[in-house]
Structure formats: C-alpha cells, structure tokens
C-alpha cells in the first residue's frame, strides 16, 4: 500500500464533510490512517468467527465474573 | 520521606502539615522552572488546607489515613470552582461545577490537594510531549521524556514536589510516566476506581490510579479511592480488599508468570538484563516462576486499544474538532480525526471481541499463575528529541512501540503495577510490570512490596531532587 497522498487526504476530508458536516483544518491523516487500516483488518480477522448475538457492553460484569473467588 | 512516612510523622506530631506543605511549595518554586510539572498552584489555598489539617489534628477525633499529607494531581480531575485545563488550550479556562469522586475520597481521607499537574493534551499521548501547553522534563535527566500522559505527575512525584499524585491510564498513561520517572504506578482494574469528574478520553478504557515512590504509598492512596460509585456506572461491586494489611504477607509459593512470547518482542538488552534480575529476586523470595504461553491474540490488542481510544475520543471531541481544530496540537488532532472514520460496525465488533479475548487471556494465564511479570517498556527511556514525533511520518508506529506492553492491559481491563528495578547505563530508570486478574490489585501490591523490601531502587532520588533538599 502506498501512503496517503494529498489527493487521498482531500478525498477523506471531503467524505467527512459530506457525511459528518465538517472539515477539520490542518489535519494530517496519512500516518494514523495507515495504523488504523492495520487495526481494522486485525479486528475484522480476529472477530470472524464470533457470534454477534451478545451485548458488546457490560465489560464490568465480565470482569466481575473473572475475579478471584477466594479473595 | 515517603508518603507513608509523612503520614506517620504527622500522626506522631513529629512534623506539621504546614511544614510539609511549605517544603513542597519551596521545592516547586526551586525546581519547577526546570521541570515544568506544575500547571496551577494557589499557595495561599495550599497553606490554608495545611493549617486546617493541623487544627483538626489538634482538636482530636477520627482522622483519615492521609490526614495532612500534601498531594497534587493530573490536571484533569475536576474540583468545583477551580480551573481544570486538561493540558489544553481549548479548556484553559474551564471551571467545573462538581468535584471528582477520586478527589472527594482523598479529601475524606484527609489529604491536601496543593497543585494541578501538567499532562499531555487531553491525555492523548504516551511520550509526555505537549505542543500547546508545554512539555514536562524528566527529573532523572531533563533531556529525556517523562512518558505520558500523566507527565507532570511523574515529574512532580519523582522530584519530591509532592508525596503522591493521581494519574489516569487509557493506554499506559500511569505506568509509562511511572516507569520513565522511577516510580510505582498502579493502573487498576477497569471499574475499580470511579472516573466520575475525571476528563474522559475513552470511556471503555479509562482508569484512575496513583503514582508514588513506593508500593506501600501506592496502596495507601488506592485504599482511599477504590470502590463502587453510583456516579460511574462501570464501577464494580466487588469488595475492595485491605491492601495495606496484605502487604507483608509471605509471598512464598505465589506463582509468577514469565511470558513466553510478545512481551519481550524487541526488548533492548540492557532492559532485559534488569527485568531478568528482578525475576530472580522473586525466585529468591520463594515465588515459583512459571513460563506462561500467552494467547496469540495479544498481538493485536495494542492496535485495537488505539482504535477504541481514537473512536471514543473522537466522540468526545467532535464539536471542538469541527469548531476549533486549530487549537489542538498536530498529533492530538490527527489521532482524534482518524477516530471519526471508524465504522460503527467495526467498533462494535472490537468491543465484542474484547470480551471473548479477555475471557481467553484470564483462563490461559491466570488459570496458571497469580501474576504475570513483564518489562514495562521494551526500550530505555528515550530522549525528548528522539521521541518528539508530533504528527510526522512514522509517529503512529513509534507510539505503538512505546505502549507495546501497556495497552494490552487496558484492552483486557486488567490491573497492572509498575515497579522500578534499576537503571540503564544512561542513568534512566527501568521497570517491570506485574499484571493480575481482575480486581486482584492486592496480590500485585503484595508482590511489589516484597520486591521493594528486598531491593533499594525505590530509595534512590534524582540528583536534581537531592540538590534541592
């Protein structure tokens, strides 16, 4: 993959303007975009077999269930 | 004098709160021009708090464990009527109308709150650099970074400007400055300490905890702040143990895990030697060191933590990003902006995945050991110059390297205790991390305290602090 060039960045910011109604000034997206791309792929791959029939929140309750029982 | 020693000296009458507070204020006046750790200070108010504490002690009655001890905190804990700038230009005049639960609990324990401490802009960064409010300096060598985002807290406690400080940790922001500045830092279990009244960065990851010079000091502060709070819906109802009573329990037979993968990836030889030596101390103390296979999924947790942080951070900052983008530093702005592009489907997928991976990690690791022992940073403490990445090419990967061993703990919601274990040849501190199962901060404190009883790294002070004594 080649890094984002100025045209790519303008296109991304145009997208934001169209879908979110604003265009932040002076933002450089190339580097975080590359990192986010890798994170998104990792998340997508790792979650491939997961059943999405559970509430994604409620993390505290999960941690409580994993706490020591002999504390 | 440590926090615990100060509390004991106050109790015995050997020293007054005014004397301790004046000493801290004097050190701030002498050292802060070099360290840039203090964001805000009202000397008259600090002394008034000290005098009130001394009067209360003279009148007798039940006093808290921290009565009269001068503390200072990261400038993101709201106190009603006092500015909380959060390391930013955008909030430089923000005056909250309520007080953070953690501060209220420290108040109830009798602690003084004598200053606001500098931090990374909106707590979004691990090196300590702040392009808009100034960058604190590391007391061990002012050419080196403090780590972040609790940068001022790390510098202030290490330089003895106060006896302890609250930081916050979303990806390593307590543990990294603790490691860089030679301190003990506890990132508690997600939900162990209330975040009510603390500036949010990423609500799924944010935690509140102390930076101190010793494990005992840390346990003292944590004892005061931990526990359920109806104002923070993620706080747990799991009872808080007696951390102090557990400190001196024998550690013989406790199983300390040594990771077989991931946590030593790319570790510098001088860091490895010190961390290995610390593991040997645990063996000598009678702990059983157990090699532990780490689930492969840990490889992606660093990146996924960043994704959650950027996404949730963007939700908090959308309006300011739309209206005041130029008021952010370039790195903060770039990292927040990318969060605006995360698809909702991906975000929900990652949160669901998180629960699955946390269950797997706890089963595989904490089914076998009581604590996992890792390096805290895989590199020696970088200089300010080499870590000054702003939003330049390569910054995102550099930040990933610095938080390599801290972000998995945030993703998994697990407690992590940073303990100093020596100095690299450049004279900068080096640390190991103990990770534990949910709400088992007590075991981490017990192990960390045993280590500090067997070693003397925590007793060393930076030259700049010794000169000011």
The number of helical runs of chain B is 16
The coarse silhouette of chain A is elongated
Structural class of chain A: mainly alpha
Strand content of chain A: under 5%
Main interface: chain pair and counts = A-B, 43 and 63 residues
**Oligomeric organization of the protein chains:** heterodimer
Helix content of chain B: 40-55%
Rg of chain A, nearest Å: 19 Å
Q: Segments of chain B where pLDDT lies below 50 for 5+ residues?
A: none
- By DSSP (H or I, 4+ residues per run), the number of helices of chain A equals 3
Please provide the ordered H/E string of secondary-structure elements of chain A: HHH
Q: What's the total number of strands of chain B? A: 11
Major sheet: arrangement of strands of chain B = 4-6-5-10-11-9-7-8
Helix content of chain A: 55-70%
Shape of chain B: globular
Strand fraction of chain B? 5-15%
Indicate how many domains the architecture of chain B comprises: 1
Distance between the termini of chain B: 11 Å
- What is the CATH C level class of chain B, in words? Alpha Beta
CATH architecture of chain B: Alpha-Beta Complex
What would you say this structure looks like, in words?
The complex is a heterodimer of chains A (71) and B (469). By secondary structure, chain A is mostly helical. Chain A is 56% helix and 0% strand. Chain A has three helices and no strands. In chain B, the strands form two sheets. In chain B, strands 4-6-5-10-11-9-7-8 form an eight-stranded mixed sheet, with helices on both faces. In chain B, strands 1-3-2 form a three-stranded mixed sheet, sandwiched between helices. With 469 residues, chain B is α/β, with parallel strands linked by helices. Chain B is 41% helix and 13% strand. In chain B, 61% of the residues are buried. Chain B is globular and about 60 Å long. The mean pLDDT of chain B is 97. In chain B, strand 10 (416-423) and strand 11 form a beta hairpin.
């Amino acid at each position: 993959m080649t890094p984002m060039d100025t045209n790519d960045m303008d296109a991304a910011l145009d997208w934001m303007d169209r879908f979110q109604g604003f265009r932040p000034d002076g933002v450089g997206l190339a580097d975080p975009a590359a990192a986010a791309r890798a994170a998104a792929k990792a998340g997508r791959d790792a979650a491939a077999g997961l059943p999405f029939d559970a509430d994604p929140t409620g993390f505290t309750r999960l941690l409580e269930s994993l706490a020591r029982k002999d504390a | 004098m440590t926090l615990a020693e100060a509390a004991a000296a106050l109790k015995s009458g050997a020293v007054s709160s005014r004397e301790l507070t004046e000493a801290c204020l004097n050190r701030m006046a002498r050292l802060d021009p070099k360290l840039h750790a203090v964001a805000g200070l009202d000397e008259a108010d600090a002394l008034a708090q000290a005098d009130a504490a001394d009067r209360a002690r003279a009148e007798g009655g039940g006093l808290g464990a921290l009565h009269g001890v001068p503390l200072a905190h990261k400038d993101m804990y709201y106190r009603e009527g006092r500015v909380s700038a959060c390391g930013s230009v955008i909030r430089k005049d923000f005056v909250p109308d309520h007080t953070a639960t953690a501060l209220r609990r420290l108040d109830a324990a009798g602690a003084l709150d004598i200053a606001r401490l500098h931090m990374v802009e909106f707590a979004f960064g691990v090196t300590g650099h702040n392009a808009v409010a100034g960058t604190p300096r590391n007391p061990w060598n002012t050419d080196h970074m403090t780590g972040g985002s609790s940068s001022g807290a790390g510098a202030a406690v290490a330089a003895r400007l106060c006896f302890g400080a609250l930081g916050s940790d979303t990806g390593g922001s307590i543990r990294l400055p603790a490691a860089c500045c030679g301190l003990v830092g506890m990132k508690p279990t997600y939900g162990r300490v209330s975040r009510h009244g603390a500036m949010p960065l990423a609500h799924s990851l944010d935690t509140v905890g102390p930076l101190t010079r010793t494990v005992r000091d840390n346990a003292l502060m944590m004892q005061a702040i931990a526990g359920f709070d109806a104002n923070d819906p993620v706080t747990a109802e799991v009872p808080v143990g007696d951390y102090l009573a557990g400190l001196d329990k024998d550690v013989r037979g406790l199983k300390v895990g040594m990771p077989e993968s991931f946590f030593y990836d790319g570790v510098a030889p001088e860091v490895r030697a010190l961390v290995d030596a610390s593991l040997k101390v645990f063996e000598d103390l009678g702990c059983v060191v157990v090699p532990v296979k780490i689930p492969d999924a840990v490889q992606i947790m660093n990146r996924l933590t960043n994704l959650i942080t950027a996404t949730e951070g963007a939700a908090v900052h959308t309006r300011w990003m739309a209206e005041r983008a130029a008021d952010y530093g370039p790195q903060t702005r770039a990292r927040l902006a990318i969060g605006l592009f995360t698809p909702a489907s991906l975000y929900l997928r990652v949160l669901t995945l998180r629960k699955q991976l946390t269950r797997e990690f706890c089963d595989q690791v904490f089914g076998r050991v009581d604590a996992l022992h890792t390096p805290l940073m895989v590199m020696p403490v970088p200089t300010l110059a080499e870590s000054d990445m702003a939003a330049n090419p390569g910054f995102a990967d550099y930040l990933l390297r610095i938080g390599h061993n801290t972000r998995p703990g945030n993703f998994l919601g697990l407690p992590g205790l940073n303990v100093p274990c020596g100095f690299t040849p450049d004279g900068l501190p080096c640390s190991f991390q103990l990770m534990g199962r949910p709400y088992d901060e007590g075991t981490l404190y017990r192990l960390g305290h045993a280590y500090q009883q067997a070693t003397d790294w925590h007793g060393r002070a930076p030259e700049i602090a010794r000169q000011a004594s």
